[in-house]
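Please discuss these two lines.
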Amino acid sequence: MRVAIAGAGAVGRSIAGELLENGHEILLIDKAPTAISVERVPMAEWLLADACEITSLDEAALQRCNVVIAATGDDKVNLVVSLLAKTEYGVPRVVARVNNPKNEWLFNESWGVDVAVSTPRLMSALVEEAVSVGDLVRLLRFSHGDANLVELTLPEESALAGTQVGDVQWPEDTSLVTIIRGTRVLTPSREDSLEAGDELLFVAAQAREEQLEDLLSARRRPDGLV
């Protein structure tokens, strides 16, 4: 898979390194000569150019890319890169970094963004996830369909502990995608049972989040009945 990354700072280089290790073809683009550090990511292609300019993106052959990642430290630049990648070059997947959470509302399909990653929000979500059990935590927002990747750790007293996945009536527009149990990562089947302490990851419509949280956090009755 060919991936172009706009922004060759610490974030862009880190992403490039991870993707290269997974066998992908990477192009790093940055307009600052000081950011072109070929020796730090020697296996990547490098382009000294302004990713907001059509001529630069033509030179980068963006139409050949499967994914574009707008990873600069400037939200305005990331939005322009995303819009150009989607509308001018038809890139199938556009991922954009959100630096200021106040700008999150802009990072949607209108600007060509398929997935918006807010570093401040993700960090705060990870803090919340570490200290809260039974509370729903948003990890990632998907622009299409107004859906989020959310996580909830099943409390000890949850009425669903011991229940098989297939027996749970999940809210509409909600999908359980992963169960993390200790060091194991499970792809849930209908026969799998939920256990207290499981970290459950869902893709869920934002309008269903409260309903999902209520379902998973509901306590058992004193007699043990749901």
